[in-house]
Amino acid sequence: MLAERRHQLILRALRSGGPAAVTDLSEQLGVSPATVRRDLLKLEEEGLLTRVHGGAVADEGDQPFAEVAEVRVAEKDAIAACAAAMITDGQSVLLDIGTTAYRLARQLHGRRLTVITSNLVVYEELADDEGIDLVLLGGMVRREYRSLVGFLTEDNLRQLHADWLFLGTSGVRPGGEVMDTTVVEVPVKRAMIKAGGRVVLLADAAKFPGTGMARVCGPEDLDVVVTDAPVDPATRSSLEEAGVEVVLAGKVQA
């Protein structure tokens, strides 16, 4: 099998199934683990994935929204349902960009809420729901990623306060730092954190450690993390030391 074809199959496996071990990729491709390691090194050099202990995880930061929306849908829906249960009618909710925030928006139909967002897909999902007061932040449109960014978005956020912020991420480091792969989104996320009363991070299992070169915030800026799988001990310890509640979709982790 040609290297280019292997690279395509490796990225497809990581984007559809999340982090994968070298041994699993070796079996799927029918090549040696050494060949897979060389492929992973090459793909990491090209900025398409991040190697982790024993395997790799895809960098989703540059994927169009439509592609990411098809990945780990069931996991995102479980997280979204758990997050939606935290919200009381009459409250204001700030929704970040990304596909998990979109899945959360789908859970809010029929509720009496104020929803504030820079996520164009969230806006489209809720635009016809008359029970929701919908605030779309201004800014520069990123068409492929269905979001609004820039100083206008940040200025809008400085004038607002929401009871809840539901924040997305591309990775959470063992020290509890929230990361992102898309640098232009980071100032907006930071402005959202300042505008949110309670900050809830929505992060499926693939986000531990996930990817990202830009630091959004530390664990001290979070109130809750909602995930679909147990968090690794090092990260969990860092979060709990900072007073962050870790919620496994469906039940509270003591």
UniProtKB/TrEMBL annotation:
<dbReference type="InterPro" id="IPR018356">
    <property type="entry name" value="Tscrpt_reg_HTH_DeoR_CS"/>
</dbReference>
<dbReference type="Pfam" id="PF00455">
    <property type="entry name" value="DeoRC"/>
</dbReference>
<dbReference type="InterPro" id="IPR001034">
    <property type="entry name" value="DeoR_HTH"/>
</dbReference>
<dbReference type="InterPro" id="IPR000524">
    <property type="entry name" value="Tscrpt_reg_HTH_GntR"/>
</dbReference>
<keyword id="KW-0238">DNA-binding</keyword>
<dbReference type="GO" id="GO:0003677">
    <property type="term" value="F:DNA binding"/>
</dbReference>
<dbReference type="Pfam" id="PF08220">
    <property type="entry name" value="HTH_DeoR"/>
</dbReference>
<protein>
    <recommendedName>
        <fullName>Lactose phosphotransferase system repressor</fullName>
    </recommendedName>
</protein>
<dbReference type="InterPro" id="IPR050313">
    <property type="entry name" value="Carb_Metab_HTH_regulators"/>
</dbReference>
<feature type="domain" description="HTH deoR-type">
    <location>
        <begin position="3"/>
        <end position="58"/>
    </location>
</feature>
<dbReference type="InterPro" id="IPR037171">
    <property type="entry name" value="NagB/RpiA_transferase-like"/>
</dbReference>
<keyword id="KW-0804">Transcription</keyword>
<keyword id="KW-0805">Transcription regulation</keyword>
<comment type="function">
    <text>Repressor of the lactose catabolism operon. Galactose-6-phosphate is the inducer.</text>
</comment>
<dbReference type="InterPro" id="IPR014036">
    <property type="entry name" value="DeoR-like_C"/>
</dbReference>
<dbReference type="InterPro" id="IPR036390">
    <property type="entry name" value="WH_DNA-bd_sf"/>
</dbReference>
<keyword id="KW-0678">Repressor</keyword>
<dbReference type="InterPro" id="IPR036388">
    <property type="entry name" value="WH-like_DNA-bd_sf"/>
</dbReference>
